[in-house]
Amino acid sequence: MKKSLLWLFFLALLAGCAAPGSLPATPTIDVAAIRTAVMLTAIADVTKQAAAATPTPAFTATFTPEPTLTPTPTVAVTLQPVPGIANANLNVRSDPRRGGKNLGGVFFNQKISIAARNPESNWYYIVWPDSPTGYAWILASAVQIENTDLYRLPIAFYDNAGNLVLRPPLVWEIPGTPLPIPPVPQGDKVRPATVIAPANARVCPSVGCMVLTVLPPGQQISMTGRYGDNEWAQFDFPSGPNGKAWVARSALEPGPDGFSGLPRFDVLGMELTPEPPTSTPDPNVTPTITNTPRPTPAGPLARMEADAVIYAEPNSLSAQVGALKKGDEIYITGISLIGEWYQIQFPAFTEGRAYIPRKNVRVLGDMRRVPYFNEQGTPLPTP
């Protein structure tokens, strides 16, 4: 009986545990997981507060200035004199001309310092302490430059206001072989020419300009400009400055139209202002022909058998005013008492007079009426 009661009590107890509304079992708490979650939450909060406390910098626009074009300054010529030596006794002048003030002289074989040349290269600008400017001029024909080329000298000249102007030398380097000269085109305005003797092609119309190449005889060229009294011709030369070069007229045989219509340039190769057009003559009007009498020679004709220097006075210490080549013809107007010097008409057919040594002069006329002159060149009375 007791066993039955105990069994019934045990069944009732089991039924009460499963009844609805009873309390659930107490869960197991993971303390380590809670601590880790709290720590991660704290770190996140600190990071968020730090981000909120740091202000975001405002965007500042930066301005990058554009490059400024700096104008190219005018080339300042620095005179760096080169040595030279006089081959004759010469006068030193204030200007590159015979009428320049005499500032002294140099003797044969004397050393001089050459700073520049004039555009025509017939006068040198030299260092001369006795000049107010420290510089002076001397004839180039009797001076030999040492250690440099003539075309590398700066160019000195005076402008219309009388101010000295210095220009750097005109130097043009051709890499490799010069390009071939193009064929002469056809057209009414084309001015062809033929090279008749080996000729130097230069960067500008002067013997002091740099030589670019040598033109062979027979070379056909197209002339595009002229200098002076048609003494130099500009022509198409692809390897030259602006596709041009210059050659002396004496080495050319121009075409039937000659130099007509060609623009004019100065001695530095810069084009001059075009000349105003001339009026077209009326074809119905017959022009009046005027005969201009040719001046009568002042004395007998003579011919040079060798090159010679022309002097301002009958002595080699006077100024050199020019030069004569072998074969040149002159007119004799006087003779020195001892016969060592001739007075000549210079330039020809003018009232100008100059002097040359008698040596290497072949007289072709009658000398019986030629007057004498003294050591100063003053004519003596005719008996």
Task: Describe this protein with a few key phrases.
mainly beta, single chain, 30% strand, SH3 type barrels
Instruction: Give the total of beta strands.
Output: 25
> What's the tally of helices?
2
Helical residues, percent: 10-25%
Distance between the termini: 204 Å
The major beta sheet can be summarized as: 6 strands, mixed
The CATH architecture designation of the domain at 82-167 is: Roll
Structural class: mainly beta
Uncertain regions: pLDDT < 50 for 5+ in a row?
Answer: 18-24, 53-74
Strand % is: 25-35%
Average pLDDT, rounded to a whole number, is: 78
Walk me through what this model shows.
- It is built from 2 helices and 25 strands.
- With 383 residues, it is mostly beta strands.
- It has helices spanning 2-17, 31-53; strands at residues 82-86, 90-93, 102-106, 111-117, 123-127, 135-139, 143-145, 155-158, 164-167, 191-195, 199-202, 211-215, 220-227, 232-236, 244-248, 252-254, 264-265, 301-304, 308-311, 320-324, 329-336, 341-345, 353-357, 361-363, 372-373.
- Strands 10, 13, 14, 15, 16 and 17 form a 6-stranded mixed sheet that branches. Strands 18, 21, 22, 23, 24 and 25 form a 6-stranded mixed sheet that branches.
- The model is unreliable at 18-24 and 53-74 (pLDDT under 50).
- Among the domains are: 82-167, SH3 Domains (SH3 type barrels), CATH 2.30.30.40; 191-265, SH3 type barrels (Roll), CATH 2.30.30.40; 301-373, SH3 Domains (SH3 type barrels).
- The chain starts with a helix and ends in a 10-residue tail after the last strand.
- A hairpin with an 8-residue loop joins strand 2 (90-93) and strand 3 (102-106).
- It is globular and about 65 Å long.
